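Support reply, case 0932

Customer input (verbatim):
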Amino acid sequence: MGQRPREMPDMTPSQRWKNWWYYHWRQLLLGAAVAAILAGILRTQLTQARPDCGVALVTAHPLASEEVAAIQAVLDGICPDVNGDGRGSVALNVIQIDFALDYGAEMDGGTRMVVTSNLDKLSADFYTRQSGIFLLEDPVGFQAAYEALEPGTIPWRDCPGAAEAALENCDGGALCFARRIAPTEEDRRALAGAAALWEELERRSEDG
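Our regenerated output:
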């Protein structure tokens, strides 16, 4: 005859809890960790400013972080609230390209890597329609290289607050805004925020 199955003794509520915890504590901790990560992502999405448009800052020499922050603050103070989140915000894409440089000349490996990286960064900006406005130290050289700008520029110095932004690593007097061409309806939709910022720049330039 087979052996009778062993009957489990009755457990108290405390024993049942300890038994359940023994087998499930790992799943509970894992679930809590996942919930914390998801809550953090959601909190970031809800509190982080969503850019209303993109501006590419293109200079011949790298700018210090303080200089970039000063330019960012000026642009955020001008940018209209296009997406309705209650604040104007610009995604500033900082790119170092010297249009006076002969890119066909021989360069050391480090310099070539920096040059290639920044040229690729600008190409990606064009491809993804990230920036509808360019803040350029050399607009003539930029247009000669890419033919991507609408006619007309707006001097950086005409922006409210620009005079207080100390720029030592680029020619602030030469900096100017230029608008990217938008030949298709898809371009115009993607760059609608930049169009609103451009109108504000024109208005403030005329008022100044």
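We compared this against your earlier run and they match. Two observations from our side: The first helix runs from residue 13 to 47. The two ends are 103 Å apart (CA to CA). Please reopen the case if you see a mismatch on your end.
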